[in-house]
Specification:
By secondary structure, this protein is α+β, with helices and mostly antiparallel strands. The protein folds into 2 domains: 38-149, PH-domain like; 166-261, PH-domain like (Roll), CATH 2.30.29. The protein contains 5 helices and 15 strands. It has helices spanning 2-40, 135-148, 151-157, 248-261, 267-274, and strands at 52-57, 68-72, 76-81, 90-93, 97-101, 114-122, 125-133, 166-176, 182-184, 188-192, 196-201, 204-210, 214-220, 231-236, 239-245. Strands 8, 9, 10, 11, 12, 13, 14 and 15 form an 8-stranded antiparallel β-sheet that branches. It has a 4-stranded antiparallel β-sheet with strand order 1-7-6-5. Strand 14 (231-236) and strand 15 form a beta hairpin.
């Protein structure tokens, strides 16, 4: 019996040693990578502790969560996997970044993570990147991003939550003849986010419409086929468009709200009007 106990203990000890060696090697790799990245990406380069990274390709694949290191330079954001150091890093040129935002206010508890969403248009695909950090690192990351993105993206970040997202959802372009009959075109996907309405053919982005050009959004029933799913109609810079969409009333409500918000002052600006001395960087605190 004692031999069995000794053998079991020895096995556990050996396993712990192996895990310890692997962790030591990983930490050595991480420190080496950070030393390499810091001079190349001087704006932001934190440690990886408490971080998760996940990429969703619209209508495509979704990666598993994994720890990572983020490096921000004047022209790009780079994500290095810690779990798979041999994998090529994800490099996002800043001209491909379409939006960034924190879906929830900062968590004050040390054991709770803070999430950041990035929308990226890369090689005809739309990527939804989700990052988690502790509070202090997230605040540093947000400050760094603000240094390298255009002002209109910072304005969008500062608008009130919840940020409007909808889809991707199946849709059919619709046209109406003089008799009121609707004809549906080939299916595509619609995805709504805080700055654009995205149209996709599979995983390929075929059009993105700035929300500040969308007006007169309406959900309508089909008089020619009352039992069919309804349509969403709207105008883009005066040009009428219509799509047959499942849950068309819900989609129309989300689209109208998202388009209206692009015309509003951000929350921090509204506060600034009320309190002349209020700091415009309150979005880093909430």
């Amino acid at each position: 019996m004692s031999l069995v106990v000794i053998g079991t203990f020895a096995g556990l000890l050996a396993g712990a040693v192996v895990v310890g060696v692997r962790e030591t090697r990983r930490l050595r790799y991480i420190r080496s990578l950070i030393r390499q990245l810091e001079p190349e990406h001087p704006i932001f380069c934190p440690t990886y502790y408490g971080t998760d990274f996940q990429i969703t390709e619209l209508n495509g694949r979704k990666s598993g969560k994994q720890p990572f290191i983020t490096a921000i330079g004047p022209t790009e954001i780079v994500f290095h996997s810690v779990s798979h150091p041999k994998d090529a890093p994800l490099v996002i040129p800043l001209e491909q970044l379409r939006w960034f935002g924190r879906p929830k206010t900062y968590s004050h508890a040390a054991y709770l993570k803070n999430e950041l969403w990035l929308h990226v248009e890369s090689e005809g695909r739309w990527l939804w990147v989700r990052l988690t950090y502790n509070r202090a690192q997230m605040q540093d990351l947000i400050r760094a991003i603000k240094l390298v993105v255009p002002p209109e993206m910072i304005t969008a970040y500062r608008r009130r939550r919840p940020y409007v997202h909808f889809g991707p959802t199946l849709a059919h372009p619709a046209t109406q003849d003089m008799q009121g009959t609707w004809t549906l075109g080939e299916p595509l996907s619609l995805f709504l986010m805080p700055l654009y309405l995205i149209m996709l053919d599979g995983t390929k982005v075929i059009r993105k419409i700035p929300l500040d050009t969308i007006q007169r959004v309406a959900a309508v029933r089909r008089l020619d086929q009352p039992q069919a799913e309804g349509l969403v109609r709207f105008e883009v810079s005066g040009d009428p468009l219509a799509y047959a969409v499942d849950h068309h009333e819900e989609f129309a409500t989300a689209l109208a709200e998202a388009a209206r918000r692009t015309l509003e002052d951000p929350v921090e600006w509204q506060r600034k009007k009320k309190k002349k001395d209020e700091n415009l960087e309150d979005d880093e605190l909430e």
